[in-house]
Amino acid sequence: MNFQNKKHIFFDLDHTLWDFDKNSAFAFELIFEKHQIPVSVNAFIQHYLPINQEYWRLYQTNQVSHEHLRYYRLKDSFDALNYVVDSTLINQLSEDYIQYLPENNHLFDGAIEVLDYLSNHYKLHIITNGFSQVQTRKLQNANIAHYFATVTNSEMAGVKKPHPNIFNFALSLANATIQESIMIGDSIEADIQGALSVGMDAIFFNELVINHSHPVMQIQHLLELKKFL
């Protein structure tokens, strides 16, 4: 596929550049130690990651609220381990998690190298469904904020990926056209289908080698982008 006409690259953040799973594990280690919760972090994470992903899917399609997501992704994970936690503690853990999560700054392998490379040839941008304050801290603490000309989040746009309006909002903010732009992300539904629905080209970051039937270019490592862009 020929991407020679591209001038603007839009990245998703979590699970694409910023290693959400690894950073979550470090955050929960600190939180469980702080509150002396006698639960294996590894066992908790095994339940938390798919539960969190499902709640984000529901949040993206406006089926649950921001507050519901933050509370029940923790409650359901503890329930899966048959460990009883009262609502007051869950709310405290939720607050601590949001505080600790952006303090970790693990990126996917090759992220800095590929951002260095691409930033010499393109304008780089972020489109994220994450919450503004948290995502800003992630970008700053991971020392990658300077790579991006614009950052669009769902709070600014008033809608979440895959809604067309967030892509149109991001394009307007970046002063970019659909034809000269491309989206790179890990979610087929939010990033890939969302971009394609407005006519924007996309590349699927399929790091987990998920089986899918979508006719879209995909990579399994960020450095593969250097072959196409």
From TrEMBL:
List GO molecular-function terms, semicolon-separated: 5'-nucleotidase activity
Highest taxon above the source species: Bacteria
One Pfam family it belongs to:
Hydrolase
User: What InterPro entries does the entry give?
Assistant: HAD-like_sf, HAD-SF_hydro_IA, HAD-SF_hydro_IA_YjjG/PynA, HAD_sf, PGP-like_dom2, Pyrimidine_5'-ntase_YjjG
Protein name per the record = Noncanonical pyrimidine nucleotidase, YjjG family
The organism of origin for this protein: Flavobacterium tibetense
